[in-house]
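Lab notebook, bench 4. The sequencing result for the construct came back, and we need a structural model before the next group meeting so we can plan mutations. Quick request posted to the team channel:

Model the 3D structure of this chain.
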Amino acid sequence: MIPLIQRAFDFQERIAIKDSSDSYSYQHLLDASEGVAMQLLQGKVDLDQARVSFLVPAGFSYAAIQWGIWRAGGIAVPLCVKHPLSSIEYMIRDSEASVVIYSKEFEALLQPLLETSELHFIKAEQFSYKKGTLPNISTDRSAMILYTSGTTGNPKGVVTTHANIEFQIRSLVTSWKWQQDDHILNVLPLHHLHGILNILSCALYSGACCEFLPKFSAEGVFDAFRRDEINVFMAVPTIYFKLIAHWNEATPETKERISKSLKRFRLMVSGSAALPVSVLEEWEGISGHTLLERYGMTEIGMAISNPYNGERRPGHIGQPLDGVSVRLCDENNQVVANGASGEIQIKGPNVFKTYWNRPEATASSFTKDGWFRSGDIAVFNDGSYKILGRNSVDIIKSGGYKISALEIEEVLRTHPQIKDCGVVGIPDLEWGEVIGASIILEKDSLDANEIRSWLKGKLSDYKTPRKYIFQDDLPRNAMGKVTKKVLIDLF
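Done. Here's the predicted structure in token form:
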């Protein structure tokens, strides 16, 4: 049996999931998923890795359907509840799904597809508890297809096996000290690895409780925290930013209550995007916790993590998880020296099986000696990895130099007049690229001369001549915020 599901028999009476409708035990989850599996099989012995897409909201139904697909021998293809129909249809067609499961709230959205005869649709509300004989699923079988963001074309389906998933879960359960008394709040989408594996699957593997909110709001999250049941939280930097903004607007009494509840947490994690050091520091002041940053991708699960016990260095992602091998290589695929930047390459049981129906894309993503090429650039500093950015987006090539957009953003955010910023490379005939920064101000004015002088000091690590070009004529945005575009040509 699939290890994640087999372990549920050890926790049958414990609460597995809480959502807006009820609390559900592991026995409820086992019974419901068995009913889903029996209806999907419809007399067959095994789905034999047929793809089953499902469009349901986060909660107990989602977990029961995911487990039911796996227990019937199918490959689960979770769909995003906020995607337009065109994106949903693309993933259904691309994965060659034989069945689409949907909740009634998405019936109107799917109506054009419901009229397509070659697709078999099942309403999630129609599943019933039904027992029967289920196939024995080996861990080398394909288990799930998750679609990447598609920054270089149409999204690609990442195929992971049950063995991949089991290794990814066990590595996090061990490294982050998961235990059955943990209670985690899940506010992340369940078509991405972060919400599916790091939160839901790790919780269920551990006999812990995973709670869902019907809809995200900072107030709703803090209300849930103040019940003093939740002790683990994982989110993306944007969510922490929203929680900080809500806390800053609260009354002194409310701030005190929130901070008191946060201090009793066991673990708080940030991932899926670079965490600004300023956000990490402000959250630490509110909660008493240094967020644990980690590094992963759909194709590899989690590969690198700051320690559960030990120093969590701001701006760094830590060390490889047990059983995962990491190296940094240059453009010629040669391992770089310590302190030099290079592409993160990964090898281990966590690495995905293939891109669905894309053998050429799969082959090009691996080196000749079998390492997965992440496309992310990092440097190894004093025993910890630091991400410099995505090679295709965040590494700006100017005058023969490679410059990390993420590092410049961190510098800009330390200025008292700058609330937030985004740095990109802008094509330039002379330099290849110059550096462009869109800046959101704390106040309604920006002293260009003062920032010019300030930047010269802050960017003193660059030993080449530099000049700064400011464009100060941009209007307010629709929200009335003053934004300024700053072009910084370092060379």
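Confidence is low (pLDDT under 50) at residues 461-491.
Will bring this to the meeting.
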